[in-house]
Specification:
Ribosomal Protein S5, domain 2, 2 domains, 11 strands, globular
Length: 320
């Protein structure tokens, strides 16, 4: 074990994934809320979750089921062996089952905190551990949220195969991009949301989906936000199956578009919605339109305009 710290607190940001046609391969970290994890070394081997706050008592403290603990244990197994242990105290700053990468933030925080404790600061070397933690949440391998939360920025994830090469690509996105996130007072567990997806797709649908994803990446990198927004709406495979699970979701989506969003999609597995826009006085108004639409459906909601968080998981209270 290389020299590290004895006690550390880290912050991992919220994230949104998919962006319509980018199912499981696109993710972006958001400025604003996130999870804070405090971790410290102990003489007793293994990982233990000492406390969790902000979750209403719903998250498991069993280290084999808790996403932060699974990530930390993976780092410990690689760098610390059986000579030390790690204890964790998690403060949830993200709502559960909201589509804002709650489990991903915890997993990223667990990997990064354990890495710092054991002397590893290179986040790229912690990708595999973070991915294992994210899998503990819903049983599937997808690095879009957790890699964005760990690394920051807007990332393309060519592969989430734990036995392959994990090499997410940081995309260039204009600084004027704003992400309007509207969070309804609903929950949609990722397992349920993934359960409605088609098992097979036609070659034509696959080709159209791949083409739209390529256009989205190109449009974002070139700063053509209207074109990027159109690509968010080009998804015919994922969001159309999931949106009916969200009460009032269709009306809220239409309201975002009518208010001027370039494009709209579910935030990850939902039920939150994401609107693509740019820095302007209209950004707040776009979010309020969706809040009003959801209210008409009997659903309370709140909206916030986000920048892309380019820092990722970091020491709590710092800009590092």
């Amino acid at each position: 074990m290389r020299g590290g710290r004895r006690r550390i607190s880290v912050f991992a940001p919220a994230s949104v994934a998919n962006f319509g046609v980018g199912f499981d391969v696109l993710g972006a970290a958001l400025d604003g809320p996130g999870d804070t994890l405090t971790a410290w070394l102990t003489r007793a081997p293994g990982v233990r979750v000492v406390s969790i706050s902000g979750d209403g008592g719903r998250l498991p403290r069993n280290p084999r089921l808790n996403t932060a603990a699974v990530s930390a244990a993976a780092v410990l197994a690689e760098l610390g062996g059986r000579r030390v242990g790690i204890e964790l105290s998690l403060e949830k700053g993200l709502p559960l089952s909201s589509g804002l990468g709650s489990s991903a933030a915890s997993a990223a925080a667990g990997a990064y905190a354990a890495g710092l404790l054991l002397g590893e600061r290179d986040r790229l070397k912690l990708l595999g551990a973070a991915l294992k933690g994210e899998r503990a949440a819903d049983g599937s391998w997808h690095g879009d949220n957790v890699f964005a939360a760990l690394l920051g920025g807007f990332v393309l994830v060519p592969s989430s195969d734990p036995g392959g090469t994990l090499a997410p690509v940081s995309l260039r996105v204009p600084s004027r991009v704003r992400i309007v996130v509207v969070i309804p007072g609903l929950e949609l567990p990722t397992r349920r949301s993934r359960g409605v997806l088609p098992r097979t797709v036609s070659m034509g649908a696959h080709t159209a989906h791949a083409g739209a994803l390529a256009r989205l990446v190109l449009a974002l990198s070139s700063g053509d936000l209207p074109a990027a927004g159109a690509c968010l709406l080009a998804d015919r495979l994922v969001d159309p199956k999931r949106l009916p699970l969200v009460r009032g979701g269709r009306a809220a989506l239409d309201a975002l578009l009518d208010a001027g969003a370039y494009g709209v999609c579910l935030a990850g597995a939902g039920p939150s919605l994401v609107g693509l826009t740019e820095e302007s006085r209209d950004a707040e108004r776009i979010g309020r339109a969706a809040v009003v639409a959801w209210k008409r459906s009997g659903v309370a909601a709140r909206a916030r305009v986000h920048r892309i968080d380019r820092r990722g998981t970091r020491l709590a209270g710092t800009r590092a």
